[in-house]
Design a protein that fits this description.
This protein has eight helices and eleven strands. It is of the alpha/beta class and about 300 residues long. Strands 1-2-3-11-4-10-9-8-7 form a nine-stranded mixed beta sheet, sandwiched between helices. The protein has a two-stranded antiparallel ribbon with strand order 5-6. Strand 7 and strand 8 form a beta hairpin. The termini are close together. The model has no long low-confidence stretch (mean pLDDT about 90). The structure holds O-phosphotyrosine (PTR) (3 copies). The site of one O-phosphotyrosine has 14 residues, from helix 6.
């Protein structure tokens, strides 16, 4: 940790910006054939934010459907395969795909780090029933809003999913962080880390409640994380989670390595030098708060 502190403490912001530029220059780690297929164009929110064939989440084949494509990628966590699915903010056309993915991957926690509208622009569709008691049907998944808890910087919504094909029912928790503009960084690392803690606790609780179904898979199914494009804020949040877990486990972090690895799974993760820099300052701030640093470091 001392080494890390020195790195962040002494390095000019410019040094980390440069490091980020180096990361950006790296060759693409795979192909985008499926994302680029003509039939899948309308499933991408942004024509230039595509998923790698190698890590994309495949929808389970259904009759009369020729594509299994959704703009979502499996991403590893800290010592955990497929800890997250990074995905774009659902488009109206893809609401049903999104909910199918949630169902098929047994997802328990959905994390949204954008608002649906920002700066007068639509960033993400309203893909879940917003009001308590509200209900919407997306393809063969019906979603009921059971309860909304408003916190200072985020909303936590308990959703009940009904699979209308097999009459199964499940609960999913939706977390929406409210103070993070795209391309930007959150106003406070503390509130974001607090948010991260809340969603991780919920994942743990939900996995434990699943009992035997997840025996041997202590961390459970992937946590779905999305913003608008699913790369900038999504990548930053996942990088923060990976690095904080590493810090807790071994007392050191390697942010650069975490980001480079992440970009081989969810291409273009972390969109700006500020977001890359924020990963460093947020972890440092957290470490200081936890008393992991001594005063003179
Ligand atoms: N027509 C195919 C579709 O509807 O998805 C397009 C496609 C292209 C599908 C490439 C898959 C592809 O490759 P991979 O199996 O590596 O994802
Ligand atoms: N290519 C469009 C864009 O970049 O604006 C994609 C897009 C389409 C974005 C629809 C948003 C859209 O709205 P909604 O989220 O309501 O589906
Ligand atoms: N081409 C898009 C645009 O610049 O409008 C791509 C894009 C959009 C990239 C949003 C990143 C974005 O941020 P985030 O991944 O945090 O939603």
């Amino acid at each position: 940790l001392t080494e890390f502190t020195t790195h962040v403490g002494r390095a000019q912001r410019a040094g980390l910006y440069e490091e980020y530029e180096e990361i950006r220059k790296e060759a693409l780690p795979g192909t985008f054939h499926c994302a680029l297929a003509a039939c899948n164009q309308e499933r991408n929110r942004y024509g230039d934010v595509l998923c790698l064939d190698q890590t994309r989440v495949r929808l389970k084949p259904r009759r009369n459907e020729k594509s299994d494509y959704i703009n979502g990628s499996f991403m590893d966590g800290y010592r955990q395969k497929n800890a997250y699915i990074g995905t774009q903010g659902p488009l109206e056309k893809t609401y049903a795909h999104f909910w199918r993915m949630i169902w098929e991957q047994n997802v328990l926690v959905i994390v949204m780090t954008t608002r649906t509208d920002e700066g007068g622009r639509r960033k993400c569709g309203q893909y879940w029933p917003l009001e308590e008691g509200g209900q919407e049907v997306y393809g063969h998944i019906a979603v009921v809003n059971q309860r909304v808890d408003n916190h200072a910087h985020y909303n936590q919504t308990t959703l009940e999913l009904h699979n209308t094909e097999n009459c199964e029912q499940r609960q999913v928790t939706h977390f929406q962080y409210l103070s993070w503009p795209d391309y930007g960084v959150p106003t406070s690392a503390v509130t974001l880390i607090h948010f991260l803690g809340a969603l991780k606790r919920q994942q743990k609780k939900a996995v434990q409640a699943m009992g035997s179904q997840w025996r041997g898979h202590y961390a459970g199914p992937p946590i779905v994380v999305h913003c608008s494009a699913g790369i900038g804020r999504t990548g930053t949040l996942c990088a923060l989670d990976i690095c904080l877990s590493q810090l807790q486990d071994v007392g050191t972090v390697n942010i650069c390595q975490a980001v480079r690895r992440m970009r081989t799974q969810r291409a273009f993760s972390i969109q700006t030098p500020e977001q890359y820099y924020f990963c460093h300052t947020a972890i440092l701030e957290h470490a200081q708060k936890q008393g992991m640093l001594t005063a003179n470091q």
